[in-house]
Amino acid sequence: MVILRKTFIIFILWLVSFSAIGQAVQFEFMQKENELKERFSQLYISENDKTSDSLNNIIIDIFSAILKNPESFDYNWNSLNMIGQVHSKDKKLNVYTWYVKNVKGIHTYYGFIQYNIGKKNKPDIRLYILTDKSKGMKNAETLSLSAGNWLGCVYYNIHAFSYKRHKYYTLLGYNFNNDFSDKKYIEVLVFDKEGVPAFEGDFQLEFQKVKRVIFEYSAQLVASINYNEKLQMIVCDHLSPFETMFSGNYRFYGPDGSYDGFKFRKGTFFLQKDVDARNIQ
Is residue 222 part of a domain? Predict the structure, then answer.
């Protein structure tokens, strides 16, 4: 009985210690979240490039340090609603993205990929910094890209597709291109056996195959691109020029009331034109 009592006491003390550690970690995350919220708020009202760069460097340092802690993987950064946060349903991937706008109106994008390469009961978290290399990038639709060579944007949606035990994390992103046009991307993120990320999808368009799909349209308009559960495809506004004379000049493009889609089959996304609008809702 004495041995059982001692064992019970040790177990209770272990539980109390574990709970205290858990609470301490949660409290630390909450503190860092509040600090990040304040820094982001300052960043988005900054009108000085030097100040913006300084604030952004502080954000990167704080965020990277906390995201390296495996326990941060399941933390909900609810108050950071000024940045892009997407989380895969399989609990394997988190992606955080934001932008810095300079005094000339040019946007540069930043972010982190947090990926769990481990098993359910044995997590192994890998953290990758996203580095925007989009300036001067040519033929971006056809390029295989990496975390260090990234087509910057803010991701707003994620959906995972599977084929032959491979996961294809499809990310939908928004880019403030310039004063005249905006862009949206359909990007596919895959990981190798070591957990190293690559941005490279397989999209079959009408006349060519590309690694990603890029939509450009007037900055005065809004174009919808989202995953549709009912249709089980990515559904997009079809973009057309306002007048035929503006063909190829994307600052004069916008939704024309019709829809296209991308259907996933055997590792490839196939374009389907003129998706029935009655099935969009």
Answer: yes
The angle at the Cα of 20, spanning 15 to 24, to the nearest 5 degrees, equals: 150
What is the helix (H) or strand (E) element at residue 193, kind and residue range? none
Residue range 188-219, pLDDT digits in tens:
999 999 999 999 999 999 999 999 999 999 99
Torsion of CA 206, 209, 214, 218, to 10 degrees: -30
The domain tally of the chain equals: 1
User: Does residue 29 lie in a domain region?
Assistant: no
State residue 228's pLDDT score. Answer: 95
Nearest to 184 by CA among 205, 156, 155, 215: 215
pLDDT above 90: residue 156 = yes
Name the β-bridge partners of 192.
none
> Residue 77: inside a domain, yes or no?
no
98 belongs to a structural domain: no
Domain containing 176 equals: 133-279
Q: Give the model's pLDDT for residue 281.
A: 60
